[in-house]
């Protein structure tokens, strides 16, 4: 049976375990991944219903039809079995037919996970890994692209000089770290005196010369300096939080920013570093990175991103369908599974009315549990919205 409320199994770097988490496109999952969701749901539900059909045919139950439908905008599949033939079978046979969808979802998730974790081995002859995050695609018109920005195929190895990037996970973690830290640079006073730009407009720090300069402030004071960013970073990379951390004749300065705008220095292999002034989220949403660096120039980059993303969603959605349909809940396979299990084990000892009472109690309890978990999950997602 198709599950309307989808849950996904996600492994997060900051958590030690895996949890079921509500899926809300545009909130905790990118809205532009809608095609992945729809295809994964269609494949997972189709495989689920295919499992029912195969088990039914194997045990002599006629399949009247198999098809697809759309619930709101969500694609799903269905299978229609011969009800009288189904009910004439033993409880054990009925259980195998009803639970076949769950087992097929587990099998599909296992296949997707195997392919995903085999990528390092399968792609080894053509790609290398662990050298950095490889830019596979850039959003056109974003502040991080352009002649002086990132290019497709760039291998990113470091952010802001102190955060090493080896893959796309460390890339995301480094961007989060930048958002949470606010450090400056130890710069000699002589450099400031020689390189400082004085604007004609005293009300502005850099004024008309803001293309290559940024306004820096001396930590602990109200002094402001308009300095050339690239020249400063080329010569001085020592970080600081106050001037006392710097050696003699140096002061601690940092770009004047708010809670969201940050200076991001992106180091690349075989290319000069890229400077970005803005919100790290723009980088995260505008740049698609992969773990694989091609050994040959003709090899595709963005295809690997599509392939891995699709496998992740298939694994997550298929496993979520398996979990939900295993729970004794109204409108889900678990409702019929618990009924057959109770009949299978309690038939010789308990009257039909009591068996029905037990089955109904477990089903309503399971339905309440699913409803509460879904409600709490959505509430937690909306309350704890993360930037990326």
Automatic annotation (TrEMBL):
Broad enzyme group: hydrolase
GO MF annotations, alphabetized: metalloendopeptidase activity
Membrane topology: Multi-pass membrane protein
Compartments where found: Endomembrane system
Key words of the record: Hydrolase, Membrane, Protease, Transmembrane, Transmembrane helix
Reactions catalysed, as given in the entry: Cleaves several transcription factors that are type-2 transmembrane proteins within membrane-spanning domains. Known substrates include sterol regulatory element-binding protein (SREBP) -1, SREBP-2 and forms of the transcriptional activator ATF6. SREBP-2 is cleaved at the site 477-DRSRILL-|-CVLTFLCLSFNPLTSLLQWGGA-505. The residues Asn-Pro, 11 residues distal to the site of cleavage in the membrane-spanning domain, are important for cleavage by S2P endopeptidase. Replacement of either of these residues does not prevent cleavage, but there is no cleavage if both of these residues are replaced
Protein name per UniProt: Membrane-bound transcription factor site-2 protease
Keyword 4Fe-4S carried by entry: no
Phylogenetic placement of the source organism: Eukaryota, Metazoa, Ecdysozoa, Arthropoda, Chelicerata
Job of this protein: Zinc metalloprotease that mediates intramembrane proteolysis of proteins such as ATF6, ATF6B, SREBF1/SREBP1 and SREBF2/SREBP2. Catalyzes the second step in the proteolytic activation of the sterol regulatory element-binding proteins (SREBPs) SREBF1/SREBP1 and SREBF2/SREBP2: cleaves SREBPs within the first transmembrane segment, thereby releasing the N-terminal segment with a portion of the transmembrane segment attached. Mature N-terminal SREBP fragments shuttle to the nucleus and activate gene transcription.
Transmembrane stretches, start-end: 34-51, 63-82, 102-123, 313-338, 358-382
Domain Peptidase M50, chain residue ranges per copy: 37-358
Family as reported in the entry's similarity comment: Belongs to the peptidase M50A family.
Example of a GO biological process term: regulation of response to endoplasmic reticulum stress
Enzyme Commission designation: 3.4.24.85
GO cellular component: cytoplasm; endomembrane system; membrane
Primary localization: membrane
């Amino acid at each position: 049976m198709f599950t309307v409320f989808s849950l996904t199994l996600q492994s997060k770097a900051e958590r030690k375990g895996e949890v079921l988490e509500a899926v809300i496109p545009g909130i905790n999952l990118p809205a532009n991944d809608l095609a992945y969701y729809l295809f994964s749901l269609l494949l997972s539900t189709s495989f689920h219903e295919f499992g029912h059909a195969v088990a039914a045919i194997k045990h002599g139950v006629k399949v009247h039809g198999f098809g697809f439908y759309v619930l709101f905008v969500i694609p799903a599949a269905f299978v229609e079995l011969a009800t009288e033939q189904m009910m004439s079978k033993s409880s054990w046979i009925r259980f195998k037919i009803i639970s076949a969808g769950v087992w097929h979802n587990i099998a599909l998730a296992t296949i997707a996970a195997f392919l995903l974790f085999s990528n390092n081995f399968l792609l080894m002859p053509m790609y290398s890994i662990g050298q950095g995050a490889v830019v596979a695609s850039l959003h056109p018109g974003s502040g991080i692209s352009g002649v002086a920005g990132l290019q497709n195929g760039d291998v990113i190895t470091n952010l802001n000089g102190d955060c090493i990037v080896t893959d796309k996970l460390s890339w995301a973690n480094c961007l989060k770290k930048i958002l949470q830290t606010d450090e400056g640079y130890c710069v000699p006073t002589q450099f400031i005196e020689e390189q400082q730009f004085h604007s004609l407009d005293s009300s502005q720090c850099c004024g008309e010369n803001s293309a290559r300069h940024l306004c820096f402030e001396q930590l602990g004071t109200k002094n402001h300096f308009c300095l050339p960013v690239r020249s400063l970073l080329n010569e001085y990379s020592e970080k600081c939080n106050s001037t006392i951390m710097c050696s003699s004749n140096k002061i601690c300065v940092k770009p004047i920013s708010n809670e969201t705008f940050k200076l991001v220095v992106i180091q690349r292999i075989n290319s000069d570093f890229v400077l970005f002034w803005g919100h790290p989220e723009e980088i995260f949403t505008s740049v698609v990175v992969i773990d694989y660096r091609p050994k040959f120039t003709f090899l595709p980059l963005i295809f690997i991103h599509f392939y891995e993303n699709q496998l992740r969603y298939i694994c997550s959605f298929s496993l979520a369908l398996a979990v939900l349909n295993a729970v004794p809940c109204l409108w889900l396979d678990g409702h019929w599974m618990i009924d057959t299990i109770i009949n299978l084990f309690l038939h010789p000892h308990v009257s039909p009315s009591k068996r029905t009472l037990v089955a109904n109690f477990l089903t309503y309890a399971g339905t309440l549990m699913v409803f509460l978990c879904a409600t709490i999950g959505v509430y937690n997602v909306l309350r704890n919205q993360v930037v990326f």
